[in-house]
Design a protein that fits this description.
The chain is 39% helix and 14% strand. By secondary structure, it is an alpha/beta fold. A six-stranded parallel β-sheet has the order 3-2-1-4-5-6, sandwiched between helices. Strands 11-10-9-12-13-14 form a six-stranded parallel β-sheet. It has a two-stranded parallel ribbon with strand order 7-8. Helix 1 links the parallel strand 1 and strand 2. Helix 4 packs parallel to helix 5 (126-139) and helix 7 packs across helix 10. It is elongated and about 75 Å long. The protein starts with 8 loop residues before the first strand and ends with a strand.
Amino acid sequence: MSTLQMPTKVAVLGLGYVGLPLVLEFAKHFDTVGFDVNTQRVEELQQGHDRTLEATREQLLSTTAKFSHDSTSMRDCQFFIVSVPTPIDKHHQPDLSPLTGASHTVASVLKRGDIVVYESTVFPGATEEVCVPLLEEGSELVFNEDFFCGYSPERINPGDKSHTLTNITKVTSGSTPDVAEIVDAMYAKVVTAGTYKASSIKVAEAAKVIENTQRDVNIALINELALIFEKIGISTEEVLDAAATKWNFLHFHPGLVGGHCIGVDPYYLTYKAQELGYHPEMILAGRRLNDEMGIYIADRVVRLMLKQKIQVSQSKVLIMGLTFKENCPDLRNTKVIDVIRELQTMDVEVSVYDPWADADEAKRYYDIELMNQLPTEQYDALVLTVPHREIVALTEGDYHAMSKDNCVIFDVKRISDSAIVTARL
């Protein structure tokens, strides 16, 4: 092990929200290659365009990093970071195909002394049980003799310009103590907030997956409270504000839980638990409740419309926001689609406005004709789903211009404090 050298060339596989910031930061210290199988993505980055809006044109055009869709471009690299998506399938089971595909790609260029670090969210044990065998098979090298592995969970928060790669503490780990030191030292070069070296790869994997599982369960509790408080006839918002005056109250809010982290990661942990013979009741109960919130919101909007004497069939409803979170163009696993689909089952004519989302992606992913500009027509109901800054900035006059008489305005995310809002979640 004393012959293991500090790497000088870095490769990052997967150039999304996680991988691109890694490429840009590591390129400030090392020869760096950013690899992605999506040729269009690579070409856009080479031209200075980032569709995720995480990097500026200036950053892309001034970086020394090389962007490529050719795996041979990584042949001279010694430190590989895998940051590909880890989604779930329609049965809520882990879809490891991007991860295994990336592992095959790394194996094709792996050499003696190389280190492969995974950042993709997985269940505890996935790196050593799923990825390592693929690396050994494809490279014909021996794990922990010829090559080594690490795990450093990503903590990127899309659209957040305050909590970024460099100023969030980075958890690191390695397959041997010496490798753990090298992995930690590599990340310490780019993360100014510091690093935390976990005792093992499995501990680091578990730490990541419980971060979002904890948030998911807490939001599920608040969502359930919102359902109860509606039946009682009191405002969830007012209850939470009152409870938050206690110093140790955790101030979560009700809402739709989508995206590729909180709405997905818990299923990786429950998958592993069930594989080991344990049924995780609380985590799965929280997941079920959060997954049903879109239907609940649609049903509540319809009930409010009926109360206002609005005929639901062939009524016009405007959904304001489609992405999975505010000030972010990402449409993956957005739960707003559940609200839309449920309203459509009731013969409601649904229109969707989102100033951040890509209209072509909305059509391709969900068959939705998206509006990027505020509509000029009037609607029977407005559903405020995503607090993009353009939606937060709307005035009462803007809402009146889009509203028919007796229009229902339902606020899912405390977007407007206006008195014209009919109800809030």
